[in-house]
Amino acid sequence: MLCVNVELQERRYPILIGSGLLQDERSYPIKRGDRVMIVTNPTVAQFYLDTVIYALEKRGCVVDHVLLPDGEKYKTLESLKLNFHRTFAR
Predict the structure, then answer these.
(1) Rounded-to-integer distance, Cα 39 and Cα 5, Å
(2) Residue 54 · residue 22 · CB < 8 Å
(3) Res 89 pLDDT > 70
(4) What are the tens digits of pLDDT across the range 43-72?
(5) Which has the closest alpha carbon to 51: 72, 86, 21, 81?
(6) What sign does the CA torsion over 57, 59, 63, 68 have?
(7) Lyase as a keyword (predicted)?
(8) What is the CA radius of gyration of the chain?
(9) Span of 21-25, 30-34, 41-45, 86-90 with lowest mean pLDDT
(10) Per DSSP, what are the bridge partners of residue 1?
(11) Gap between the Cα atoms of 89 and 8, Å rounded
């Protein structure tokens, strides 16, 4: 696994590059009991969502997800807020 650290003016974060990262528990910077929200779209979800949810739940996380429709016009703060409110109301 290769780790590339991205350093921006206001924040920094690692990008992991490698084969099998979705199944590798070291790829998830979380701990047992954390609540995790996955935001994705149906195109990506059909390939990866179940694998990511399984890996996170296996680590003891409480996982929920939001599916935004495909397309840039849905990648807005308003769209995300609406889905978060629905999710946290459960």
Answers:
(1) 22
(2) no
(3) no
(4) 999 999 999 999 899 989 999 998 888 888
(5) 21
(6) negative
(7) yes
(8) 15
(9) 86-90
(10) none
(11) 34
- Residue 27 tokens read as 């790829």
Pick the CATH number of 26-88 from 3.40.50.410, 3.40.50.1970, 3.30.420.40, 1.25.40.10: 3.40.50.1970
Residue corresponding to tokens 């998830």: 28
Residue 82, number of CB atoms within 10 A of its CB: 13
Q: Which residue has the tokens 């920094």?
A: 12
What are 3's two structure tokens? 């780790």
Which pair of structure tokens corresponds to residue 41?
């779209």
